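Feature request, filed as a ticket because there's no other form

It would be nice if the structure record came with a short human-readable summary line next to the tokens. Right now we just get the raw output. Example of a typical job, pasted below so the devs can see what we mean:
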Amino acid sequence: MRLPVLLAVAAFVLASCTHAAPTAAPSPSSPAGKGSNAELLADALAQADRAASAGDDTGLARPLAMIAALDARPLDAEGQAGLERWRRRSPDTTAPLRGRTLGPGYRHGTLNAGGDLRIEQTFLSGQKASIALSTPDGAKLRLQVVDGAAHPVCQYEAASPSCEWIPIYTQRHVIRLINPGRRKTRFYLVID
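Raw output as currently delivered:
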């Protein structure tokens, strides 16, 4: 990892520790105090969304620096448009670094009460796969991942569920997001 990326990650982690917003309990997939890149990115996306919604343009700088440092890219046009809006509002934001061939990707969307979304994604054999989900309002969502043979990989329901595993075979997986709540909620899904 390059020094600018490490500095951006360190600044983001320190800022997150001193931020007055409530924090969620660690996910079942990671020990307390440690987060995967997917979890860090999901948190950065939710922080950027909260800052933009609150009209805090300067508050966008730190989460956008983390998104750039993790080399994340939107997986859909809506996510790309949202990221561009945040960048325009934050004068301190630099363009994302492009060091790796495949970096993490994310998707932004809205789930109605009781709604669900299915996405297919191919994961490579022997390489760690990470998925994290976050909501700007802290609403609980259910994250389910099933491999190509319909075997469950993980299933969590939490405010910020995440899942990490190492696939035995390169194959397509089904990622399912479910909103068990009674209100519509926005989400960020990070796939790494």
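Something like this underneath would help us a lot:
The two ends are 16 Å apart (CA to CA).
Residues 37-53 form the longest helix (17 residues).
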